Amino acid sequence: MSEQAGIPRPKPGVMDIAMYIPGRSKAAPGVKLHKLSSNETPLGPSDAARAAYSAASARLEDYPDGSSTQLREAIAAAHGLNADNIVCGNGSDEILELLARAYLAPGDEAIHTEHGFLVYPIATLAAGAKPVSVKETGLTADVDAILSAVTPRTRIVFLANPNNPTGTYLPISEVRRLHAGLPSNVLLILDAAYGEYVRRNDYESGIELVSASSNVVMTRTFSKIHGLAALRIGWCYAPSHVIDVLNRVRGPFNVSSAAIAAGAAAIRDKEHVENSIRHNEHWLSWTTAELGKLGLEVTPSVGNFILIHFPDLDGQRASDADEYLVQRGFVLRAVKGYGLPNSLRMTIGSEEANRGVVAALSQFLGKA
Is the peptide bond before 162 cis (omega within 30 degrees of 0)? Predict the structure, then answer.
C-alpha cells in the first residue's frame, strides 16, 4: 500500500472561514484596565450565583445532569415557559452552531444581515452551506431586503435582535412581518442575547412568536446581564420538533454542573437583574449624550453597548482613538471585521470607566 503524499486536509470550505477574534483584554502596562470590549456587565454575577458555583465544587467527580434539568426548570419558571421546549448549551454560540449543523447542508443558504454577529457566517460555512449577507438600512436590519434574498436554497435566517455591534433593533411588528414572509421550511433564529436590556414598548424577544409558530427559535445567553460569561451558558426556546433535533446532535454533557447551578441561581435573582438594568439605562443615556457633545456620532443603542463613529480625518480615526484609549487603560472593541472600520464599540461599564472614556476622548479630540 503506497503512502499518500501531503497532509490530512479539512473538508472543502473550512479554510474559507475567517476566525472569530475576540475583543482585546489587555491595556498598556502600568495603567488600570477598564475592559469595555466584550459587553460584560460591570456589576458581575449575583451573590447567589457565586454561592451556587462554589457549592458545586463539592462534587467535581460527578458528571453533570445531561439534560440540565435544574437550569431548564429555572429558566421556564422565570419566563413562564414549558421546560420541555428549552435546550441549554455551552453558550448561545453552541446553540447557533448546533442549529446550523442540524439544518444546513452543502448547497443550502443561510441569511444574516451585513453587520450581524460574526458567528452566523462561521457556523454556516462550518456546516458546508453558503452565508448570504443582506444590506442593512441605517445600521438596522431591513425586512424587505432579507425577504428579497430568500431563495429555494434558503434554510435559515439569523436575526440578532438587538443587533451586535450596532445596538439597533426591530420592533416585534417587523419581526412578525419577516416571519410571515418566510416559507414554512425556513427556520427563523432570533438571537436575543441582549433582550433583557431593551426598554422599548414595541420590543419582544420572540417568546410569543416561538409559541405560535413551527419554524422560529429564540436563543438567549447568561453571558451578558447575568454576568456568567466565564461559565458559557446559553439556551434556546423552540418548537418540540426542533428540540428533538437539538437533543440528538448536542453533546451528552454540554453544560457543566457549576454552570447549571450558577445559572439557575442567577435567573432567580430578579433584584440583581433589575439593578443591572437600571445601571445600564442610566449610563447608556449619559455616555451617549456626553459623546455627542464631543461631536462624535453614536448609533442609538438598546443594548449594553454603543457604537461610536469617528471622523475620517488624519489622527482622529477609530484606529487612532483605539490606541490612544488603550494607552490610558480603556479597551474598546474595534469592529473592522463587522464592516465598520472607522467605529469602535464600547461596553457600558462602571461609572469610573464611562466617565474615563469620555474624558480621554475629549482630550483625544482636543476638546478638554
Answer: yes
Report residue 235 as a C-alpha cell: 439556551
CA dist 193 and 206 (Å) reads 11
Q: What is the dihedral of CA 355, 278, 33, 195, to 10 degrees?
A: -120
Residue pair 59/69 in contact (Cβ under 8 Å)? The answer is: no
Contact 233, 223 (CB under 8 A): yes
Q: Choose which CATH entry (3.40.630.30, 3.30.70.270, 3.90.1150.10, 3.30.300.20) describes domain 14-44+271-364.
A: 3.90.1150.10
Nearest 10 degrees: Cα torsion 156, 160, 164, 168: 130
Residues forming CATH 3.40.640.10 domain(s) in the chain: 47-268
Instruction: Quote the strand ranges of 161-299, DSSP E.
Output: 187-191, 216-221, 233-237, 297-299
56-107 pLDDT tens trace = 999 999 999 999 999 999 999 999 999 999 999 999 999 999 999 999 999 9
CA distances from 243 to 99, 214, 222 (A): 10, 11, 20
Give the number of other CB atoms < 10 A from CB of residue 279. 18
In which residue are the cell numbers 442549529 written? Answer: 99
Return the CATH fold of 47-268: Aspartate Aminotransferase; domain 2 (3.40.640)
The string of pLDDT tens digits covering residues 180-200 is 999 999 999 999 999 999 999
